[in-house]
Design goal:
alpha+beta, Double Stranded RNA Binding Domain, three-stranded antiparallel beta sheet, 2 helices, 3 strands, 35% helix, 38% strand
Length: 66
């Protein structure tokens, strides 16, 4: 994701935690990935990293026009 964004724009790629739900032993995280102010993907997962990876995957699909 970093390489794709850096090759297409100079704007910063950022991940933002939107929501954290559930008990400590069974959390669900929701994140979004942005280029500048534009949201390009969202994802959920059992860890912040997993949610970021899903968001990045959706962002890549959007950047590739799929």
């Amino acid at each position: 994701m970093q390489e794709i964004v850096q090759s297409q724009t100079e704007e910063a790629l950022t991940y933002e935690l939107l929501k954290e739900e559930g008990p400590d032993h069974n959390k669900i995280f929701e994140t979004q990935v942005k280029i500048g102010d534009a949201i390009i993907g969202q994802g959920t997962g059992r860890t912040k990293k997993a949610a970021e990876q899903v968001a990045a995957y959706h962002g890549i699909l959007k950047l590739r026009g799929q």
